[in-house]
Amino acid sequence: MSMATPAWVRDAVFYQIFPDRFARSERVVPPGPFEPWDSPPTRNGFKGGDLYGIAERLDYLADLGITAIYLNPIFSSASNHRYHVYDYLEVDPLLGGDRALDELLQAAHGRGMRVILDGAFNHSGRGFWPFHHVLEAGGQSPYREWFYLDHAVRDPAGRLDAYPSPSEAEALAREATATGGPPGSTSRRVLGYEAWWDFPELPKLNVGHPAMREYLLGVGEHWIRRGIDGWRLDVPEEISDVDFWREFRQRVKAINPEAYLVAEIWHVAPDRLAGDQFDATMNYPLGEAILGFVGAGRLDQDVIGEHGTYSAAVRPLDGPAFAHRLGELLTVYDAAVTGVQLNLIGSHDLPRFVTMCGGDRTALRLATLIQMTLPGAPCVYYGDEIGLEGRIDPGCRGAFPWDRERWDVTLRDSVRRAIALRHANPALRGGAFRLVAADAATVAYARSEGRDLILVAVNAGGAAVRLELAVPEASERGLETVAAFGEDDDVAPSPWVDANGSAVVDLPGRTGVVLRAASARRD
Q: Using DSSP, how many helices (H) and how many strands (E) does the chain show?
């Protein structure tokens, strides 16, 4: 029996926004100077983007074809990425506060756009008010069980050392690496509390404590009641108590059964997508495969090497290897799950896609074509569509340039056309998937729904190729060219499928085409 996942997600095209870097409105009075908008991003600097600014730019997103927004954390925090939360029940005043979120939700929903928020429930910032209480009261704080404290701190006179000097923090990091103990064990001994991966600014939350657990579950419910359409959940595997996530799902879905729960999990995880925890994961394995295929021969290994997971996972892939990986990833889950996987090729945790491909923007055109024609919900990382570049954080989190003279408008048009293609063809959103051909640097696959058959053929290599397609379901029917993407957007092959179900397509180098089978057979 098919599992239940939110119906709207299959048809959605997401756009991920890093709120501090997308758009600054005139409605939030700065408490002091921000970094210049167009200056290179820094790890700790604030540029002043806010939620009103996003609401004012919904026309831009609608024109691109976006129907859902994924926001990086928006709760009060002392970091520009806001994973260091100090109040989970308040939108950061620098983003416009709760009223700005209400306005954004109303404006987005009025356009038929959904909005999901980012929830970091494994750890908070050290400014989190219960942790601050422990800092002040030590072992006598009634909130002491909300965190993982060293036994010495539990003494009434015990105190935490949450603000080590830079040299002390460096020594802590070296010791944590050298000892090789469980993540957080060194900080627990040295600082008096367990910090996520021993970062002093990130105390780990004890979801096993009833009051802490109820607080976090209440946060999940609160914002769903406020009108958000789901949660992207940060590092959920770091919470070993799986029942926490089962209860989180039950509580959230009781309020909105169509709420989308997508987990930041970087690997294939069937046990997490069995219907009792999450609806989907951020589909990084697919993103790795797409990058390896369209970027083969162009990958900047120095850039990719800066990212721990990608440095180990991303390799150049030819057509057969890419087809094999697609076959694995599209069959590992129930079809209802595959259809709502968050299919991304860029995010705030990766170097920019174009930068990973050595500046080759054709690779992004081909990647977007593949992304928009596979099962799952595609997600565009803000600015990728206009050619933003940047290495790993903070480079990948630059401010969006609203001066159109700085946009690659040809690239944006290609992304826009690929999104429109997905919206216009139900088979691309919910149809069956079948691999058709793979050879050298090429791959072809079919999406079908009823008699509607769409073929996607991509040549990631530099040389023109002739690709033979086996499509018996379209025998003696014509194949109409719907769109072309890549270095040659004007290519227009319109082959016929013979009585044996075979067709031949000539593909220029670095080009992808989308073909539709004619509705009637040839006379």
A: 17, 17
Euclidean distance between CA atoms 460 and 238, whole angstroms = 37
Q: What are phi and psi of 236, to 5 degrees?
A: -65, -25
The string of pLDDT tens digits covering residues 441-479 is 999 999 999 889 999 999 999 999 999 999 998 888 889
Per-residue b or e along 234-272, where b marks 16 or more CB atoms closer than 10 Å to that residue's CB: bbbbbbeeeebbebbbeebbeebeebbbbbbbbebbeeb
How does DSSP classify residue 165? -
Active site (annotated) includes residue 276: no
**Amino acid at residue number 2:** S
User: Cα–Cα distance between 63 and 66 in angstroms, integer?
Assistant: 8
- Extract the tokens encoding 195: 């910090």
As given in the structure block, the two tokens for residue 457 are: 């053929």
Q: How far is CA 251 from the centre of its chain?
A: 24
* Helix orientation angle between 210-226 and 97-110, rounded to the nearest 10 degrees: 50
The residue among 41, 35, 5 whose CA lies nearest residue 274 is 5
Side chain identity at residue 494, one-letter code: S
Strands 75-77 and 230-233: unpaired
| Tokens of residue 390, six digits | 């940047």
Q: Over the Cα atoms of the chain, what is R_g? A: 24
Token look-up 């090729």 returns 345
Q: Is 168 one of the annotated active-site residues of the chain?
A: no
Residue for token pair 């025998």:
475
**CA distance linking residue 100 with residue 104, whole number of Å:** 6
Q: Which of 11, 145, 221, 234 is catalytic?
A: 234
The amino acid occupying position 190 is V
Among 416, 457, 297, residue whose Cα is nearest residue 363:
297
Q: With contact defined as beta carbons under 8 Å apart, do 444 and 438 qualify? A: yes
Which member of 264, 279, 300, 488 is catalytic?
A: 264
Tokens 């890549």 identify what position? Answer: 486
- One DSSP character per residue, 315-341 reads ----HHHHHHHHHHHTTSS-HHHHTT-
Under 8 Å CB-to-CB from 144, ≥6 apart: which residues?
A: 134, 153, 154
- Determine the pLDDT at residue 520: 62
Q: Which residues of 376-393 are buried (b: 16+ CB within 10 A; e: fewer)?
A: bbbbbbbbbbbbbbbbbb
> What distance, in Å, lies between the first and last C-alpha atoms of the chain?
42
284-327 pLDDT tens trace: 999 999 999 999 999 999 999 999 999 999 999 999 999 999 99
The pTM for the full model equals 0.96
The pair of structure tokens assigned to 206 is 């004890």
* Structural domains of the chain, with CATH: 7-122+208-424 (3.20.20.80), 129-198 (no CATH), 431-521 (2.60.40.1180)
Distance between CA 14 and CA 120 in Å, rounded? 20
Tokens of residue 159, six digits: 């105190």
- The values of phi and psi at residue 381, to 5°, are -85, 130
